[in-house]
């Protein structure tokens, strides 16, 4: 089945005549008739009752008409989005990132900004996963980077872009800071933890991690800011769970980074609304997906 066959079919249905449909599509009547004939052959039934006065839909044609319109409409929207990306010269896109994914997200933003220098790029303060989802859902942000977990609410779509590996950050001069070997959850109980506020997705994830291991942790500090949490580790306050990709390029010498054992991975994704997506947001999503697909090769 070809799109041109559907276009010819819908045109004949709308105009009630092969002649008028051919004129509307700027096609010769034999060409249009051939396209409709091929479509009928594929379905194994006639779609029109041909008479001297024109063409009327058969029962099979009536069943096909609405789905055919939806296919053509969807193709039209897709083409408009592609055209918007290639010809994008104005507009803006607002991005919010998960607090431990700012470095990777910034790399994708840089690619977009260089490709579309006339589009305004706005970056909101980093959030927890739930904050990212809320910002995108409410329209405060067009695009979000968050962990690929169950979405908090309808109307959002997430595209997986990469996998992040969990890591434990411990003070260098602590009982766990001398080694860089993988560390278990049981070993982590020897230090108090720097965690997010109660009820946050990050805090809940840490609580579940320890509970699944049959362990409990002592809270050293509740902090909702990634960079500050790392500084608290540097100051000897406690241990902090993050992802390797979310760490600064050059970690402080007073902080030891140890891989969590058993191995723990977090799928990361780019989030946008399903409806009311601007051309700039479509372009950003396309650029980001391409960027991360190259990064993981």
UniProtKB/TrEMBL annotation:
<dbReference type="GO" id="GO:0003700">
    <property type="term" value="F:DNA-binding transcription factor activity"/>
</dbReference>
<dbReference type="InterPro" id="IPR036388">
    <property type="entry name" value="WH-like_DNA-bd_sf"/>
</dbReference>
<dbReference type="InterPro" id="IPR050950">
    <property type="entry name" value="HTH-type_LysR_regulators"/>
</dbReference>
<keyword id="KW-0805">Transcription regulation</keyword>
<protein>
    <submittedName>
        <fullName>DNA-binding transcriptional LysR family regulator</fullName>
    </submittedName>
</protein>
<dbReference type="GO" id="GO:0003677">
    <property type="term" value="F:DNA binding"/>
</dbReference>
<dbReference type="InterPro" id="IPR000847">
    <property type="entry name" value="LysR_HTH_N"/>
</dbReference>
<dbReference type="Pfam" id="PF03466">
    <property type="entry name" value="LysR_substrate"/>
</dbReference>
<keyword id="KW-0238">DNA-binding</keyword>
<keyword id="KW-0804">Transcription</keyword>
<dbReference type="InterPro" id="IPR036390">
    <property type="entry name" value="WH_DNA-bd_sf"/>
</dbReference>
<dbReference type="Pfam" id="PF00126">
    <property type="entry name" value="HTH_1"/>
</dbReference>
<dbReference type="InterPro" id="IPR005119">
    <property type="entry name" value="LysR_subst-bd"/>
</dbReference>
<feature type="domain" description="HTH lysR-type">
    <location>
        <begin position="1"/>
        <end position="58"/>
    </location>
</feature>
<comment type="similarity">
    <text>Belongs to the LysR transcriptional regulatory family.</text>
</comment>
<dbReference type="GO" id="GO:0005829">
    <property type="term" value="C:cytosol"/>
</dbReference>
């Amino acid at each position: 089945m070809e799109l041109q066959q559907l276009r010819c079919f819908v045109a004949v249905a709308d105009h009630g005549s092969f002649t008028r449909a051919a004129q509307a599509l700027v096609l010769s009547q034999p060409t249009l008739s051939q396209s409709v004939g091929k479509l009928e052959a594929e379905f194994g039934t006639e779609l029109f009752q041909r008479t001297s006065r024109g063409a009327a839909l058969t029962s099979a044609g009536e069943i096909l008409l609405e789905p055919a319109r939806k296919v053509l409409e969807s193709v039209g929207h897709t083409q408009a989005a592609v055209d918007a990306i290639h010809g994008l010269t104005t507009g803006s896109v607002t991005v919010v990132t998960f607090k431990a994914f700012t470095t990777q997200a910034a790399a994708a933003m840089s690619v977009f900004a260089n490709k579309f220098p006339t589009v305004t790029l706005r970056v909101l303060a980093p959030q927890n996963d739930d904050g990212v989802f809320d910002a995108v859902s409410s329209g405060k942000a067009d695009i979000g980077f968050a962990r690929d977990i169950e979405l908090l609410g309808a109307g959002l779509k997430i595209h997986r872009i990469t996998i992040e590996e969990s890591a434990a950050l411990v003070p260098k001069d602590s009982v766990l800071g001398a080694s860089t070997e993988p560390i278990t959850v049981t070993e982590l109980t020897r230090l108090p933890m720097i965690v997010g506020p109660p009820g946050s997705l990050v805090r809940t994830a840490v609580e579940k991690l320890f509970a699944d291991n049959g362990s409990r942790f002592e809270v050293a500090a509740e902090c909702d800011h990634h960079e500050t949490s790392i500084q608290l580790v540097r100051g000897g306050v406690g241990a902090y769970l993050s992802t390797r990709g979310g760490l600064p390029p050059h970690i402080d010498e007073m902080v030891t980074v140890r891989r969590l054992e058993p191995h723990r991975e977090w799928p990361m994704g780019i989030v946008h609304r399903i409806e009311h997506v601007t051309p700039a947001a479509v372009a950003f999503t396309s650029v980001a997906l391409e960027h991360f697909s190259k990064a993981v090769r």
